[in-house]
Structures are given as structure tokens and as C-alpha cells.
Amino acid sequence: MAASLSLKDVSLHFGGVKVLQDVSFDVEPGVIFGLVGPNGAGKTSLFNCISGHYRPSSGSISIDGTEASGSPPARLARLGLARTFQHPALQLNASVLQNVLLGGHTRLPGGPVSWALRLPYTARSERAIRTEALELLDRAGLAWAADLPADELSHGLHKGVELWRALLSRPALLLLDEPAAGLSHGEVEQLIATVKRLRTEQDITIIIVEHHMGLISALTDRVVVLDHGRKLMSGTAAEAQSDPRVIEAYIGKDAADDAA
Ligand SMILES: Nc1ncnc2c1ncn2[C@@H]1O[C@H](COP(=O)(O)OP(=O)(O)OP(=O)(O)O)[C@@H](O)[C@H]1O
Ligand SMILES: [Mg+2]
Asked: Which stretches make up the ABC transporter domain (predicted)?
């Protein structure tokens, strides 16, 4: 089931630095939502708050109505949250398959004791998740890479492995932090097709942080623009791209005036 997300007055301060200030917005279940804004606007920090890597200084974050702010990442993963990172965070010495399998961990029944004892029902689930991981890699045209160490893959494929790892957890809410960064034109096209396919085949809510406006326009139903830690506006990607406040935030007031 796709999850909803609701942020109310989320602020994040590091010492005197106000990274996020009173950010509020709602994401309906099943939508593809864009989070955009210039470098340093606070997009990754906001993802870190949602995924439990940062604890907001104030405000509330709820997933399907359950208060999530301040919960550890492992608990949020069990609530159906998965994410990728701006800089891929893979186990580089482990194989591609082992990296993807990490995403299936939250679906294993029981707990550390039954996992360590490898009880029959745990082993059965492990086998099923492994089969699913191999199918995911196969569909992505990556079956050939399953047993290669992750560090032998290109940057583009690292991004892909992170996405497959996140999807193996069968998330209800998926956060993608700059999934197109550093990808070739062809890889971006493939990514857009993959996310479109996800939307039709799975009941999932997706939030994408991205500077690639072509991708944001192609995929998102709605966007929020952040600037200097504050919400500047929300609307469709087209509305954001033609909003003078957004143009000013990206290129500076003088340049925006010259362009007008
Ligand atoms: N742990 C931290 N300690 C201190 N400052 C931080 C911390 N994390 C983020 N910041 C600051 O918060 C601000 C927003 O950073 P953030 O990485 O969230 O921006 P961003 O919108 O993701 O930018 P980009 O598009 O470049 O990825 C920056 O000024 C950054 O230095
Ligand atoms: Mg960032």
C-alpha cells in the first residue's frame, strides 16, 4: 500500500545554522512528488529527517498518520520507507547481488535470534527474497553483474544497484536523492522509464530530489521548491519552472530581472 507523508513546520538547526525552517507539505499516497531547489537549499537534509538519519529540531513528520520524526532508520524501514543516497552508499567489496539483498532484510520474519539460527522459515524467506533479487537484476539487464564486486561497476550502475536494493524492501514510500546525477543521457531515459513502470506496476509513493528538470517534468505530479531551508512554493513542475521566485532563487535577482 502506498503511504502518505505529512510534514508540519519541520525545522532543523545545527548550532546557529538554520538548515530547514518551518517546512510543511503533504504528499498523497501513490503520487510521484518532486523536491527541488538550488544547491544547499536543504533537500538532502529534509530527506535525512524523513528517513530518521537526522532528528528535526522541531515540527512533525508523519507517515500514514504515524509520527515518524526522531525514529531510527530501521524502524522507519519497517514502516515501509526506503531511500537512495545522493552519493551511492554500497558495500563495495560485496557482490552486486549481496548489495541488493540488503534491501530484503526488513522483510525477513522473526528477529536476530531466528536469523542467526537459520530456522527453516527464515531460510525459506531468504530463498524467496534471493530469487526476487535475481529477477529484479534480470529485468534491469544486470543478471551478468550479480556476482561481480560492486566496485567493478560504473557510477551509473551503482545508482541502479541502490535503486534495486531499495525496491527489494517493497517500500510504500521511496525517497530518491538525485537519482540522475552523473548519469548519461541514455541512462536518464532508462531511469525515467523505470520509474514510470514502477508507478503502473506497484502501489508506491515516490519523492524525488533532482536538479534534472527534464526528469522532474517527465515524472512528477507535483513539486515543492526549497530555498535556503524554506518552502518557496508548491505546484506542478511547469508552474515551478515559470515562477519568478524560483527563477530568482536559481539564477539570482539581477539575472532574473535582466531575463524578464
Ligand atoms: N550535519 C550537518 N552539519 C552542519 N550543517 C549541515 C549538516 N548537514 C547539512 N548541513 C548544511 O545544510 C545546508 C543544506 O544542505 P543539503 O545537503 O541539505 O542541501 P541540498 O539541497 O541537498 O544541496 P545539493 O543540491 O547541493 O545536494 C548546507 O548549508 C549544509 O552545509
Ligand atoms: Mg543534496
From this structure: 5-253
Out of 36, 43, 55, 216, give the residue to mutate to test ligand 1, the one with the largest number of ligand atoms within 8 Å of its CB. Answer: 43
Among protein residues, the one whose CA lies closest to atom 9 of ligand 1: 45
Q: What domains does the chain contain, in order, with CATH numbers?
A: 1-80+177-260 (3.40.50.300), 91-170 (no CATH)
Q: How far, in Å, from the CA of 60 to the mean position of ligand 1?
A: 20
Q: Is the entire prediction scored with pTM above 0.90?
A: yes
Whole-number Å distance between alpha carbons of 188 and 147: 25
Q: Who contacts 159 (Cβ-Cβ below 8 Å, separation ≥6)?
A: 84, 88, 179, 181, 182, 183, 187, 191
